[in-house]
Design brief:
Helix content is 46%, strand content 16%. The chain is an alpha/beta fold. α3 runs parallel beside α4.
Length: 212
Amino acid sequence: MENIMVQIEKTGVIPVVVINDVEDAEPLAQALCEGGLPCAEVTFRTAAAEESIRKMTDIYPDMLIGAGTVLTTEQVDRAVAAGAKFIVSPGFDPEVVDYCILKQIPVFPGCITPSEVAQAVKRGLKVVKFFPAVQFGGVSTIQALTAPYVGLKFMPTGGVNAKNLADYLQCKSIIACGGSWMVKSDLIKAGEFEKIKDMTKEAVSLVNEIRA
């Protein structure tokens, strides 16, 4: 878990991707790696997600690939078997979280209320997802939550983009942000992998500039 957290913090941004066609997995992974972000949260919203994770991790074994939008323990098993190194869920599901902890699988559940954060802290989690970030108050809410829960880190996702990234990454309680602006579904569907690579490079430069 500690190693995964270090890798995530180093990237600053985790591309959140929706893959509808397995054939897009390899060129997408290549674009992200060449763009300087060898990582991705592949959402389990499509039938192609599981095989896409398998393909990306087989071809690019050093990539940090996680599974997002994981709603059941069965999906946890499928994602990990396919090569996912961490699990992300949109909300706090005790069954999914406890299952991952039992199996020693890094898990980042969505937490947006003090009660959800309390459940995460009680289980020893050090990092949680904050989703949907913009709709639930963004940085100001995260800062309010970390006041009583000192040391807890957040990964905000949902509405994070190049324009507001600095607001998030300048907050010490935020380890990294999940973002989809450089990997939008229409770009993937259109095969615009060069554009994705260029936008990924821009995202990396932005992170470096913010953290400088």
